[in-house]
Amino acid sequence: QVQVVESGGGLVQPGGSLNLSCAASGITFSSYVMGWYRQAPGKQRELVAICSSGGTRNYADSVKGRFTIDRDNAKNTVYLQMNNLKPEDTAVYYCNAQRPSARLMYWGQGTQVTVSS
Q1: Nearest CA to 38 among 92, 84, 89?
Q2: Residue 13 in contact with residue 116, Cβ under 8 Å?
Q3: Helix (H, G, I), strand (E, B) or coil at 56
Q4: Which of 12, 49, 99, 116 has the fewest CB atoms within 10 Å, i.e. the most exposed one?
Q5: Which residues of 10-43 are buried (b: 16+ CB within 10 A; e: fewer)?
Q6: Is residue 59 a contact partner of residue 67, using CB atoms and an 8 Å limit?
């Protein structure tokens, strides 16, 4: 049974930091592309950051220089370090695991991030 579980969300003031974690089980983690997406109220879900199985990282323009995605294959975990947070970063953040070659994709349940003073 595949499980993708996020943690680390919460309320933070503008300029603050949060570190999200996503633990995946039931998959060959090292073979999967791992990503973070977010969805704000009334908006579509959007890609935030993605890390390939080989370690290549890509970021949305809106978070470049502020967010860092990293993965630990030994722990089956992907992280999203978020610095200099802005109110517009407020959203539910979702972890995604995908293996395009096998047409497999899994989502976590999401974790709320609220940036407000």
Answers
A1: 92
A2: yes
A3: coil
A4: 116
A5: eebeeeeebebbbbbeebebeebbbbbbbeeeee
A6: yes
